[in-house]
Amino acid sequence: MIDDLIDAVIDREGGYVHHPADRGGATRFGITEAVARASGYAGDMRHFARPAAAAIYRRSYWTRPAFDKVAAHAPRLAAELFDTGVNMGPIVAATFLQRALNALNRGAREYPDLPCDGRIGAQTLDALAGFLATRGPVAETVLTRAVEALQGERYLTLAEQRPANEAFLYGWLAQRIG
Q1: pTM of this structure
Q2: Residue 28: which of 57, 5, 1 has the closest Cα?
Q3: Coil, strand, or helix at residue 32?
Q4: Is 110 exposed, middle or buried (CB count within 10 Å of its CB: 0-12, 13-18, 19+)?
Q5: Under a CB-based contact definition with an 8 Å cutoff, are residues 16 and 45 in contact?
Q6: Neighbours of 10 (CB within 10 A)
Q7: Is the CB of residue 155 less than 8 Å from the CB of residue 173?
């Protein structure tokens, strides 16, 4: 599963990009120069290798934030969290999940409210399992839509707060289709 998600992100992000409105600076395969440097890459971003990008995606956007553990319960939701994490950071994605679970727990009657700390641990995974078991076959779809709604709202806010981000808004929202 993760290999297909990584390939799709790398294909979508493309090769070397250095858009003047992008605060992240130069990227290759969607990996910013800062992230590449933090992972030990010292060369020109134009030559950053695809396997290195894939390793960063796997480690920093799948395993470290525990989206792989979410996938054991809800693979479509995990794919959405991965995508959201790539675009907004894994902590933001995990916080979206926690917020959605809190809002959907019927006043903490189904499971206790979670701290929205952006860390997926036993408490978040237990709440997820409880939600899925209680709400039935469409629960994963509903939770995924809640995360997507939070993501869309954040994209709009980013464009409203920084007009230069309007250059990216259409593409951010368009990738949500499909």
Answers
A1: 0.91
A2: 57
A3: strand
A4: middle
A5: yes
A6: 18
A7: yes
Q: Are 53 and 29 in contact (CB under 8 A)?
A: yes
Q: Where are the beta strands (DSSP E) in 34-156?
A: none
The tokens describing 51, both together, are: 């396997």
50-85 burial string, b = 16+ CB within 10 Å, else e?
A: eebbbebbbebbbeebbbbbbbeebeebbbbbbbbb
Res. 163 pLDDT band, cuts 50 70 90: confident
What residue has token string 């695809």?
A: 50
> How far is it, in rounded angstroms, from Cα 127 to Cα 135?
12
How many Å apart are CA 30 and CA 41, to the nearest integer? 15
Tokens 């709440």 belong to residue: 127
- Can you read off the two tokens belonging to residue 22? 């992008």
What residues contact 100, with CB distance under 8 A and at least 6 apart? 143, 146, 147, 150
pLDDT band at 176 (very low <50, low <70, confident <90, very high): low
Instruction: Dig out the tokens for 136 from the structure.
Output: 């039935």
Tokens of 96: 């979206």
